[in-house]
């Protein structure tokens, strides 16, 4: 029995070390055929930290000194990666007299019940912009607008390039936007939606999960397109289900500072430290984060994000 325990502990430690090392393939931008595998492994430093500490504790229990040292070494590497992410902001008091804009961003998992729950939460939050991903397949724009009567305009694209039918649709509803437009991609369900409201450039996107090399390519081209033509010296907000955590290389191509600390937050498929933070709101250009929260849940497998920003006094009133 003792030998079986030792083999299990050794195998667990070896797996943790292997995943930790292979994940550096993504961080080093090794984009050859195995690149998508490296990407899949790059999102787990928090979980690998917990697993390595567990394996190290077991190794000490069984007096496996070298294995324990190896496990704790892997834990140290993942702790450095996990805690080293610092490009985020926590809520600050709004400057006196500052105008504010409120954002809700949520993946509703193609459920009308979830969408209705989210709409009620957005009304209670007095949202100025609501960005939705994976809306119900047969939802019409009139139905969407009826759920958000306080928001005066929006978009719900259904067809992309060359009449390509979008199976995972996104939508944006906004209060008195100056403009809304979409960018589509060849052979893709993805869309980047841009809106201007109160002098702020708002962008929303929901690229696919990188489960295959093709999906990874599609996700990466959408995320890299988010910053195309964006003047980051002026106020901007980017929201979406990025299907990427802050520890992957591609996440860093999206401009801005993340609203909220993702290190101890999960948005999919669980909240808290066991979930993955793949849903994000990023911002910059003089905006100040004054409120942020992930959840409460609405019945989806993703938690919705709520954020409020104080506007610079130089922005025009809408």
Task: Describe what you observe in this structure.
- With 318 residues, the protein is an alpha+beta fold.
- It folds into two domains: 2-84, no CATH class; 91-310, Endonuclease/exonuclease/phosphatase (Deoxyribonuclease I, Chain A), CATH 3.60.10.
- The chain is built from seven helices and 13 strands.
- It has helices at residues 2-27, 35-41, 45-61, 65-84, 112-125, 141-147, 213-226; strands at residues 88-89, 100-107, 129-133, 153-155, 170-174, 179-184, 191-197, 200-205, 236-241, 257-259, 279-284, 288-294, 305-310.
- Strands 1-10-11-9-8-7-6 form a seven-stranded mixed β-sheet, covered by helices on one side.
- Helix 7 links the parallel strand 8 and strand 9 (236-241).
- Helix 1 (2-27) crosses helix 2 (35-41), helix 1 (2-27) runs antiparallel to helix 3 (45-61) and helix 1 (2-27) runs parallel beside helix 4 (65-84).
- It is globular, with a radius of gyration of 21 Å.
- The mean pLDDT is 91.
